[in-house]
Design a protein that fits this description.
With 308 residues, the protein is of the alpha+beta class. It has helices spanning 54-68, 147-158, 163-174, 184-194, 203-217, 241-250, 294-307; strands spanning 11-15, 28-32, 72-79, 85-92, 119-123, 222-227, 233-239, 255-256, 269-275, 281-289. The protein folds into three domains: 11-123, no CATH class; 136-194, no CATH class; 200-307, no CATH class. A hairpin with a 5-residue loop joins strand 9 and strand 10 (281-289). Helix 2 packs antiparallel against helix 3 (163-174).
Length: 308
């Protein structure tokens, strides 16, 4: 509510009613006065005053306007799905920028706007859902990672500790889940954003030039590169002519494994391996993945199918 009155002796208090489940009900607000002889309708408006109904609030400001020597009108109002007013903006009748082109002396009821700033905004305090302050800090807009949590995640990532283990460690240090300010998904998103890609130090461009040169030497050489939102390499697949030819003969059964040693970019090497008629292992394609999630594996398998 806009602060129009100059009397700031009023105090607004709100009672919070908590049920057995920790949910906060809509507060029952009321105004207390320093002077008990005053009526609530005789005080000046202040910020955060509460009323039992929209009609009571409108009556309060109308009485204030009469005492102060001006009249009010409704500037804006909004209704809810039940056709009940839940937002109301009352202003002085001289509010606005419009100036009549007719001379006030010849008008029967001469009125002219003066851009008066007096006004009050009234809105319902009811929420359409239960409130729970114990978990409100985990709402997406309120979650955050502290510098200490980020440092712990970075150190554990370098040590190849799984993200869920890192999150449990941070949660234990914080004293339990109720004291956490972020979720495990936030930790995974943080690590995903900070994983180094092949584009660092020009290695991405060097890889692309190498694949292009191999393609120029043999048109049957095949490669695909997946880029992220920042046009950085996040996944790679390639297969030479020999691997593609072998897949036609021995591609009925494949072995796919991502447990090989990773490179300096923490991208696991993912080979497609088959068995020839001599019982020897043969390479049927290779991949590098930025992360071992479902989307990365789907992209890699589809790339292999397009190649073969």
């Amino acid at each position: 509510m806009d602060n129009i009155g100059s009397n700031m002796s009023e105090v607004v208090e709100c009672r919070e009613n908590t049920d057995d489940f920790g949910m906060i009900e809509v507060p029952d607000c009321y105004v207390t006065l320093d002077d008990p002889t005053k009526s609530p309708m005789d005080v000046d408006p202040t910020v955060h005053m509460c009323f039992h109904s929209m009609q009571e609030a409108k009556k309060f400001y109308t009485n204030y306007a009469i005492r102060s020597g001006f009249t009010v009108r409704t500037r804006t109002s909004k209704k809810d799905e039940n056709n009940n007013v839940n937002y109301l903006r009352l202003v002085c009748s001289r509010e606005g920028k419009y100036v009549s082109s007719i001379n006030p002396e010849v008008k029967t009821l001469p009125r002219q706007t003066k851009q008066c700033p007096a006004g009050i905004t009234i809105s319902k305090k009811d929420d359409s859902h239960d409130l729970c302050p114990t978990t409100s800090k985990l709402i997406p807009g309120n979650r955050k990672l502290s510098m200490q949590s980020k440092h712990t995640l970075d150190v554990n990532e370098e040590a190849r500790v799984r993200i869920n283990k890192s999150y449990l460690s941070i949660m234990t240090d914080a004293g339990g889940y109720d004291n956490m300010e972020f979720t495990e998904r936030d930790a995974r998103n943080y690590i995903g954003k900070h994983r180094r890609s092949l584009c660092k130090d020009g290695d991405g461009q060097a890889l692309l030039r190498h694949f292009s040169a191999k393609k120029d030497l043999n048109k049957d050489f095949y490669y695909e590169i997946e880029l992220d939102e920042g046009n950085r390499i996040c996944s790679v697949f390639w297969a030479d002519a020999r691997s593609r030819a072998a897949a036609e003969e021995f591609g009925d059964v494949l072995c796919f494994d991502t447990t090989y040693l990773t490179n300096k970019y923490d991208m696991p090497f993912a080979p497609f391996v088959g068995i020839n008629h001599h019982g020897h292992s043969i390479l049927l394609g290779c991949g590098l993945l930025s992360s071992e999630d479902t989307n990365s594996f789907v992209w890699l398998f589809q790339s292999w199918l397009r190649c073969m």
